[in-house]
Design goal:
single chain; 15 helices; 4 strands; 6% strand; disordered N terminus; disordered C terminus; TIGR02453 family protein; CHP02453
C-alpha cells in the first residue's frame, strides 16, 4: 500500500544548508554590533539549532521554541528573542534582521568618561609668556570696575623729545620738578600717573652724577668715586615730624663726602630744581658740634681765613652776619642761635661763629647755566673754591681739643 504524499514538499537539503549559512553570517554581524555577552550565548544556541536541522530533527527544534523561557532581564529577553528569530525557518526574510540592526544603531552609545588627571600638570609656558598673554587679554577685555573703584586718569608716558646725552640736565627734568611745586601735583595719585616721566628724570640725574663724580674726585682727592646709588637721595619726604605733609621733594639731590651721602663729614651737595651747590655740614650731632665750637674758641684763624678768601667771598658774600638776619656766607641759617651758646661768654671775640649750628654755604645757578652742556665743569670750578672750607670743617669736627673754653655763665639767655 503506497504511503500518502503531502501536497507541500519539505525543503531540500541544499536549501536548508544555504539558509543555515546565511543565518550564521547574519548572526556573526549581529554579534559584532551588539558586543554583548548574551549575544555570544544566543549565537551558540542558534548554531546548535542548525545542527539539529541537519539531523532532520526539525520538529524537536520547533517544540523547543514553543517551550516557555525563564524570566530574564530586558536585555537578555531581547537577545533571546533575536536568537529565536535567527533559528526560525523564515531566515530568508531579511526584514526582521534589518529591523534588529536598526534598533541597535538607534540605541545611543554612552560617551566615554574622561580620564582623571593623573597628577601631571599641563604644559605651561614660561612666566614671561604668561605675563604677555595676561596683558594681552587685559587689553582686549573691557575693564570692569568693582564697587567703590573709579578711573583716576591715564598714565603719562615719558617724553621722547628734548632728551640730552648722559652727563647733562634736560628741560624735561626741569618741567617735571616744576610741577612738583604745585600742591595739586605733589600727591601720590598724580605721581603714579607720571611715574614714567619721573623714571626718565631719575636716570638722567644718575648719569649726571656719575659724570660729575669723575670731576669732583680730581678736585678733591678726599672724595671716593662712589656709585650714584650711594650718593643720590630719595625723592620721598619723611613727613613723620613735619607739618608739611606733601609726600615728595621738589628737587633731585646728591651728597658727596668721605662716606657718600651718609656720615658726619662735611660734604658737597648738588640739587636740581632750584639748582645749587652747597658745601659744609648741616645740623651736626651734639658731640660734633661741641668739638667744632671748642676748636673755634681755641683758635678761629684758619676758619676765618678760608671764608674771607676773595674767591670765596665772590661766590658766597662777605663773612659778616646781616643786620636783617638774611643769609650771607656761613651766617644767617634758620637754626642760628640768638644768644651765646651754653658754656661761652656773650662777649666772646668769636661769638658770631659760636652761635652757628650749621656751617654751610650755598651758591645758586641760573637755569640757562644748568641746561648748558658744560654745567658739570662749572660745578667743578665752584667745588674747587669751597674745597678748603670742607677740609677745615672736617678737621674741626675730628681733632679733639683738650683746652677748655671760657668760664660758664648761667642765665636764661644761654642755649645749646
Amino acid at each position: 500500500m503506497a504511503a500518502p504524499t503531502s501536497s507541500k514538499e519539505p525543503p531540500s537539503t541544499s536549501d536548508r544548508r544555504a539558509s543555515r549559512k546565511s543565518a550564521g553570517q547574519t548572526n556573526t554581524n549581529a554579534k559584532k554590533d551588539s558586543k554583548r555577552a548574551s549575544g555570544v550565548r544566543n549565537t551558540k544556541a542558534a548554531v546548535m539549532g542548525s545542527n539539529d536541522e541537519e539531523e532532520g530533527n526539525s520538529d524537536e527544534v520547533s517544540d523547543s521554541e514553543e517551550q516557555p523561557a525563564k524570566k530574564k532581564g530586558p536585555r537578555k529577553r531581547n537577545a533571546r528573542k533575536r536568537a529565536k528569530d535567527y533559528d526560525s525557518d523564515a531566515l530568508d526574510d531579511d526584514s526582521e534582521f534589518d529591523e534588529a540592526d536598526e534598533e541597535d544603531e538607534e540605541e545611543p552609545r554612552k560617551p566615554k568618561r574622561k580620564r582623571a588627571n593623573s597628577g601631571k600638570q599641563d604644559k605651561t609656558h614660561s612666566p614671561r609668556k604668561r605675563r604677555r598673554k595676561a596683558n594681552k587679554d587685559d587689553e582686549e577685555d573691557d575693564f570692569d570696575l568693582k564697587e567703590g573703584q573709579e578711573v583716576v586718569g591715564e598714565v603719562v608716558q615719558a617724553p621722547k623729545t628734548g632728551r640730552v646725552p648722559p652727563g647733562q640736565i634736560s628741560k624735561n627734568t626741569f618741567d617735571f620738578l616744576q610741577k612738583l611745586t604745585d600742591p595739586e601735583c605733589n600727591d601720590r595719585e598724580w605721581f603714579k600717573l607720571h611715574e614714567p616721566v619721573y623714571r626718565l628724570a631719575e636716570k638722567e640725574f644718575k648719569d649726571f652724577v656719575d659724570a660729575f663724580t669723575e670731576i669732583l674726585t680730581e678736585v678733591d682727592p678726599h672724595i671716593p668715586p662712589l656709585p650714584p646709588k650711594d650718593v643720590i637721595h630719595r625723592i620721598y619726604r619723611d613727613v613723620r615730624f613735619s607739618n608739611d605733609k606733601t609726600p615728595y621733594k621738589k628737587n633731585l639731590s646728591g651728597s658727596f663726602s668721605r662716606s657718600g651721602r651718609k656720615g658726619i663729614f662735611a660734604c658737597y651737595h648738588v640739587s636740581s630744581g632750584e639748582t645749587l651747590l652747597a658745601a659744609g655740614t648741616w645740623c651736626p650731632g651734639k658731640n660734633e658740634l661741641a668739638t667744632i665750637r671748642s676748636n673755634i674758641a681755641r683758635s678761629s684763624d684758619r676758619l676765618r681765613q678760608v671764608i674771607s678768601d676773595p674767591e670765596f667771598v665772590k661766590l658766597f658774600g662777605e663773612p659778616k652776619p646781616m643786620k636783617d638776619g638774611g643769609r650771607r656766607n656761613i651766617f644767617g641759617a634758620e637754626d642760628e642761635l640768638k644768644v651765646a651758646p651754653k658754656g661761652f661768654a656773650k662777649d666772646h671775640k668769636d661769638i658770631d661763629l659760636l652761635k652757628c649750628r650749621t656751617f654751610a654755604v650755598v651758591h645758586r645757578f641760573k637755569d640757562s647755566e644748568v641746561l648748558a652742556p658744560d654745567f658739570k665743569n662749572k660745578l667743578g670750578e665752584v667745588a674747587a673754591v669751597v674745597r678748603p672750607f670742607v677740609h677745615c670743617l672736617n678737621d674741626l669736627m675730628t681733632l679733639q681739643d683738650n683746652d677748655g673754653g671760657d668760664d660758664d655763665e648761667d642765665g636764661d639767655d644761654e642755649e645749646i
